[in-house]
Structure formats: C-alpha cells, structure tokens
Model the fold of this input.
Amino acid sequence: MEFLTDPIAWWIEPFTNNVFMQRALWAALLAVLTTSVVGTWVVLRGMTLLGDAFAHGVLPGIALAYIIGFSTTLGALAAALLIVGGINLIRNFSPLSEDTSIGVLFVGFLALAVVIMSSGAGAYSGDLTRFLFGSITGIDGGDLRRQAIAAAISVGATVVLHRALFVTTFDEAQARLAGMRPRLAHAALLTLLAIAIVSSFEAVGSLLVFAFLVAPAATASLLVRRVPRIMMTAVGLGAVAAIIGLLVSYHHGTAAGATMALATVVMLLVTLLVTGVIRALRSSASDSAADSEQTELAPQNSH
Done:
C-alpha cells in the first residue's frame, strides 16, 4: 500500500531520480499518442484483426534486419509496407475478402519470422526479445526523436485526412459521391498504422503494441461518441495506463512493456464493467418508472 501511504516515493521519485525512467516515460507517452490517434480509426472501422496482423507482421523484417546488421526500424517498416501492399493487392485483384487476405498474410509473415529466428543465421536471436517484448528502459535520445517524428506524422496526417477518413468510415458510398477516394484513404490509414506500430515496437514490443493500439481507443469509445473526443480520451487513458504500468514495473520488477499493456486491458475491462452496471441501473429505473406510470393510469382507465 506504499502508493497510498507514501505517494511521493511511489508516484514521483522514480521519475525524478532515474534518467532511464524519465526516458521510458517520454517513450511511453509518445507511443500512446501515436497508437491512440491511429487506433481510434482502427476501432471505429472494425480493423482490429488488421492491427494484430501488422503487429506480428513486422517480425520478419525485424529479425532479418537484426541478423544482417541492418536497421531494425527500417526492416520493420519494410515488412509493414509489404503487408500494406499485399493486402491491397489481394483486395483489389482477387475475389478473396479482406479478412481472408489479412489472415493469410498474418500467418505467412509470422511463420517467416519463426523460420528466420530458428535458422542457423538466427542462432543468436535471443537478443530479439527486446524487439518482441520491448525494452523501454533502454530507450535513448535517438529513439525518442524517431518516436516524436512518427507522432507528429500520425497527428498531422489525421488532421489533414480527418474528413476523408470520417466519411469513408461511416458512409463509403457517400464518400464516393462527394468525390473522395475510399481506397486511397484506406491505403493512407494502413500506412499510418504501419508507422504507428514500427515507431512503438522498441518501446512496448511488437507483440504488445497491439494493446496500445486497440485498448485505449476501445475504452474511449465506451465513454464518448464524437471522433475527436474519442481520440483525446484514448490518449489520456493510454497515458494513465502507461504511467501506472511503468510504476508497477519499477517497484515490482515486472516486464515494463507487458505491464503497461496489461494496464490498458484492465482499464478496458473495468470500464466495461462500470458502464454495464450503469446501463443496467438505468434500464431498471426506466422499467420502474414505466410500471409506476401504468399503475397511476390504471384507475383512470377503469372509470
């Protein structure tokens, strides 16, 4: 109960006395900003399967780049862009549904990652756990700069493309009538999704970035309705979960990336429980009011 009995030591001092925790905090907040903004569209469009496929699909690029001594960030970005191209190619030039194409590419890229990691060239791939599960306490200034650039691109592109993404999300036919290009907007969103995942995998790990991409936005969608408010609420909720996860990891020695991801999921489950109880109470109150009204009208009707 130290977080209640000695709040300064539990909540504040880890960030004021530890430069690694300071960098971890900035990395987590930048990851939340990037993934929550893009994740709002992922949740509203029902593209969570695609987000999961991206989170796993970057692994072959990371593994191959690491083995040959190339930039893992560029390797992940190349793999993500290959997924974007593959999904659009199958979607536009085959009778297969988008879910099918995503599933095929997801399995293919994940299998390729396992093959690369288990090959002779990947004999020392134990260090790849950093990229699978994150190493947020090992973030340096260069990593923070790359994350800041990705966050600026995600936020800027979302502002510029807001109308196109909004209309194509809720009424694709109306978007076509208005002269918009839904396929181009979809491709732009896929590119933003790739940037969000690639820029965040070093902070929370490619296997755990999916939680940051979906959970804060899904939680926000339960609380507010308008898209800008969902984005802002998702960023706020994600930031709270990231801070709590970092502090729990610091004080109890757990994996930082996994603890932060777990915090976002717990926040979503708590929100579901609370909103469910509120809806049940409101429904019960409405039923009681309706029953009372019928009881009051019954004697009048009998006359």
